[in-house]
TrEMBL record:
<feature type="signal peptide">
    <location>
        <begin position="1"/>
        <end position="29"/>
    </location>
</feature>
<dbReference type="GO" id="GO:0005615">
    <property type="term" value="C:extracellular space"/>
</dbReference>
<dbReference type="InterPro" id="IPR036378">
    <property type="entry name" value="FAS1_dom_sf"/>
</dbReference>
<feature type="domain" description="FAS1">
    <location>
        <begin position="55"/>
        <end position="195"/>
    </location>
</feature>
<dbReference type="InterPro" id="IPR050904">
    <property type="entry name" value="Adhesion/Biosynth-related"/>
</dbReference>
<dbReference type="Pfam" id="PF02469">
    <property type="entry name" value="Fasciclin"/>
</dbReference>
<keyword id="KW-0732">Signal</keyword>
<protein>
    <recommendedName>
        <fullName>FAS1 domain-containing protein</fullName>
    </recommendedName>
</protein>
<dbReference type="InterPro" id="IPR000782">
    <property type="entry name" value="FAS1_domain"/>
</dbReference>
Length: 225
């Protein structure tokens, strides 16, 4: 009996200790933070700088040229107009702008594809980037001494000057109105064809022409699109 009382006493002592520890934990959890504690204040990132006047002026001049209305619309539809603004804000650019006749020559399948949301994101964006050459705003006289430029997408743009002085871009587009727009940070040349980066040819064939994915996908000839 005495042993039972001892065990019961020990158990009661342990239970009391457990209750004390639990209450201490509750009280500790509810203890308010010291008065000196100041929670961190969220500081939003600064807004992006406003577009440079030169960039806005260039876009306005492109839009003002009647034969570049489709090119201007394509820049806005793909949101590459924002890329162009950013480039001009921090550097120089040479723009190869296809005229309305070049857009009119696109196949019905490709036009329909470029009007879809996925077509704008996957295809039109890359096409428009390929028409912006970064690193300099070159006049036609300077282009005649250059054989390759770098597009805003990082792809190479090949140039060739013919015997009569005409400049060919990627072998298919002819510069028909050189130095159409000139500025401090940008020069625009009007071309008569849309140039396509080789990196998106398979995407165009699969997404816009419903060609099944294949490792042996043929490269379309010039003028196919």
């Amino acid at each position: 009996m005495a042993q039972s009382r001892v065990v019961r006493s020990v158990l009661l002592t342990m239970a009391a200790a457990a209750v004390f520890i639990a209450l201490a934990g509750i009280v500790g959890a509810q203890t308010p933070a010291p008065a000196s504690y100041v929670p961190p204040v969220y500081t939003p990132p600064p807004p992006p700088p406003p577009p440079s006047p030169a960039a806005l002026a260039l876009l306005a001049r492109i839009q003002g040229l009647g034969d570049l209305s489709m090119f201007s619309n394509a820049l806005m539809a793909s949101r590459i107009n924002l890329t162009l603004i950013g480039i001009i804000g921090g550097g120089k650019v040479t723009v190869f702008a296809p005229n309305n006749g070049a857009f009119a020559m696109l196949s019905p399948e490709l036009k329909q594809c470029l009007d879809t949301q996925s077509g704008k994101i996957d295809v039109l964006t890359q096409i428009m980037l390929f028409h912006l050459a970064v690193g300099g705003n070159y006049t036609v006289a300077e282009l005649k001494t250059i054989s390759r430029l770098t597009a805003a997408s990082g792809m190479p743009i090949d140039l060739m000057t013919l015997g009569d002085g005409t400049i060919m871009v990627e072998g298919t587009a002819r510069v028909v109105v050189p130095d159409a727009i000139t500025g401090v940070n940008a020069t625009v040349h009007i071309i008569n064809d849309i140039i396509f980066p080789e990196s998106i040819l398979s995407t165009v064939m699969i997404q816009c022409y419903n060609v099944p994915p294949s490792a042996s996908l043929p490269v379309p000839s010039a003028g196919f699109f």
